[in-house]
Amino acid sequence: MFSLFLLCEISEDSKSIYIVANPNLEICTYMNGNFKKAVWKCALAALFLASSSFAGYGFSDYRDRDQSRFVMKPAKPFRPDKDVVSVVMREAIPRGGGYTYQYPRENPEPVLTDKYAMEGALSMEIELIASDYSGVAICIAGSVDLTPYLEEGVLEFWIKGEKGGENALFVLVDDGVKSGGESLQVKLRSKSLGEITTEWKHFSIPLKLFGMTGVYWDAKNTREVMLPFSWANFKGFRLEVRKDENESFKVWMDDIVIKKHGKPYDGPAHYPFRNEI
């Protein structure tokens, strides 16, 4: 890179203008021209010479000038798995129309964070109001037919608690097509399947443990309604808590998926779909 000094000299009669790149080089001289036109030509010549001075510096030098100031956190690689039927959460909510919702409305929204991550670079932080019936749902775009995988399929995810010992319900929801638009839910108690701890813990839950009977809350009649759960129209995963079962509730979840096959269940037979342990 070199420095460039321009000297623009206007004669006393305002009819002569000189542009000099250095004390020994005369670039151009305009004699007896229109003054305004000459000034414009002077400015354009100055821009041309200035741009030439930056050519040696290069665009890449500007592009990379802050590279050392920002260090990206290396992502943990995902394990290749062709057995996955549906991805509910992996680095983000599902693309193409996936969404999240929380209840009640004042409950904090779930957020993606790089504070913790079991696989990849991001996990989902979920905070629920412990003094109320509250929950967060992660829904996929469209729906997925899980009926071919009911016998051997599993719900798998990683979860990490803020304090450990959190008490929650793991919930699957359908799209409500067969229940008048009300999404039916099948639920299992977290403590019936293992403890949530302050370390990352992996859960693999056979789909058949959730049973065939779903439930939804009828707000008009203030009661729960039970109907057959639509495994042919799986919509998403929900995490919820019952009122006053936790002093506070915050967890991080990662890599929530439905898989075709999983480890055989070795717990009690005929597991109820809403175990109240």
Quick rundown:
The chain is mainly β and about 280 residues long. It has helices spanning about 35-55, 60-65, and strands at about 5-10, 15-20, 25-30, 85-90, 100-105, 110-115, 125-130, 135-145, 155-160, 170-175, 185-190, 200-205, 215-220, 225-230, 235-240, 250-260. The relative contact order is 0.17.
Key features?
277 residues; six-stranded antiparallel sheet; five-stranded antiparallel sheet; 16 strands
Which helices and strands appear, and what pairs or packs with what?
Blueprint (H helix, E strand, L loop, with lengths): L6 E4 L5 E7 L2 E7 L3 H21 L3 H5 L20 E6 L9 E5 L7 E3 L9 E6 L5 E11 L9 E8 L7 E6 L10 E5 L11 E6 L6 E6 L4 E6 L5 E8 L7 E11 L18
Antiparallel strand pairs: 1-2, 2-3, 4-16, 5-8, 6-7, 7-16, 8-15, 9-12, 9-16, 10-11, 10-15, 13-14
Helix coverage percent: under 10%
The CATH superfamily of the largest domain is Galactose-binding lectin
Instruction: State the end-to-end distance.
Output: 74 Å
Q: What's the rounded overall pLDDT mean? A: 80
Q: Please tally the helical runs, counting DSSP H or I stretches of 4 or more residues.
A: 2
Indicate the CATH architecture of the largest domain. Sandwich
Can you tell me the residue ranges where pLDDT is under 50 for at least 5 consecutive residues? 1-12, 14-32, 273-277
Percentage of residues in strands: 35-45%
Number of domains: 2
Number of strands: 16
Report the radius of gyration as a whole number of Å.
33 Å
Largest sheet: 6 strands, antiparallel
The CATH first-level class of the largest domain comes to Mainly Beta
Task: Briefly note the structural class of the backbone.
Answer: mainly beta
In the CATH hierarchy, the third-tier topology of the largest domain is known as Jelly Rolls
